[in-house]
Amino acid sequence: MTQAVQRRCEQELGFSTPLEFLYQFEYREPYKDIGTEHELCSVFAGTYEGSPIVNSNEIKSWRWVSPESVNSELKKQPHTFTPWFKLEWHRLLQDFSEVLLKAGTRT
After folding, report:
1. Interval 78-104: pLDDT, tens
2. In 6-80, which ranges are E strands?
3. How many structural domains compose the chain?
4. Separation between Cα atoms, residue 76 and residue 79, nearest integer Å
């Protein structure tokens, strides 16, 4: 799994960096009247000091965001986040706050 995540990082963001597996979770969430998302997701963390070279065929837009900014945006505009992200953000804050703080130091 780690090799596949590393490969996707290179293909989508244009860089390679050591990644740490944090945890895995499964969710099932209804989506409008279309159906249900049911996925098994793995969460990895890493740091990178350079600027990504984003593959626009894979990623429409991106930005660096601090954990504080995510908290603020979740309160103001929860509809702009995916269901799985909203479900897992609390766990990331509770169990992996040191990882988020390290990532959030980017300017």
Report:
1. 999 987 888 888 888 889 988 877 765
2. 20-31, 35-45
3. 1
4. 9
Question: How far apart are the C-alpha atoms of 105 and 86, rounded to whole Å?
Answer: 22
- pTM confidence score: 0.77
Which residues partner with 21 through β-bridges? Answer: 44
Q: Is 22 exposed, middle or buried (0-12, 13-18, 19+ CB in 10 A)?
A: middle
The CATH code of the domain that includes 44 is: 3.90.79.10
Q: Tens of pLDDT along 18-60?
A: 999 999 999 888 878 899 988 898 999 888 888 899 999 999 9
**In sequence order, which residues have a C-beta less than 8 Å from that of residue 5 and are 6 or more positions away?**
19, 42, 44
Instruction: Report the sign of the C-alpha dihedral through residues 10, 14, 18, 23, in that order.
Output: negative
Task: Tell me how far apart the alpha carbons of residues 11 and 8 are, in angstroms, rounded to a whole number.
Answer: 5
